[in-house]
Target: Parvalbumin
Amino acid sequence: MSMTDLLNAEDIKKAVGAFSAIDSFDHKRFFQMVGLKKKSADDVKKVFHILDKDKSGFIEEDELGFILKGFSPDARDLSAKETKTLMAAGDKDGDGKIGVDEFSTLVAES
Model:
């Protein structure tokens, strides 16, 4: 399954483009722009599993830095600052990684 099976390709392109500048990433706006906020809980979990590149059941900090590439292969990497900000917003239990429930909450709070 690819991201465009779940989300509109044009919405993804616009959202990735909106955050092309370093340190401009805002996960709340991004999730809204790609249409993720309007998706069912099941679809949000499917997106999580696409972003969980190593299939560990978690999005670790190194994977989080490449989150935009999970939506569009030609997107930029997040800066270290953006990655840490996103991890802090999503890692509710402080274990240094984002699980599927934490990701679902992160999207819902957007």
About this structure: The CA atoms of residues 59 and 73 lie 17 Å apart.
